[in-house]
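To fix ideas, we give here one paired sequence and structure record:
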Amino acid sequence: MTFLALGVALAVLIGLAVMQLLFIGGRQVGEYVWGGQHRVATPRLRRAAVVAIVLYAEFALLLLSRAGVLPGGDTTAITAATWVLLAYCASSIALSAVSRSRRERIVQTPVSILLALGALVVAINGTGA
């Protein structure tokens, strides 16, 4: 179950990173990200998207470690960081659900739910699964 949840979470993170890359590249996907206020990225939002991509990569590494694919998953630091990540993912559900952008609400809310569920299973089961 952990590896299925890990796979779902990693797929979501990859999809989110691709969406940010499209946004950085000038594609008109802004209605799906960052509150949906800008169809095309402003310079500030481009920088924020780069930061988001880096964070997604760090989230992936954290989940891979907690699931036992990378070392250190049973350490207190990794365990605690995974629960913090889960809290972050759970908050993104609420933020996506109240977005002013209808498209962001429709797309990102279920995406956030999937990511949070994947992180929850990995957080609970850790390296033992």
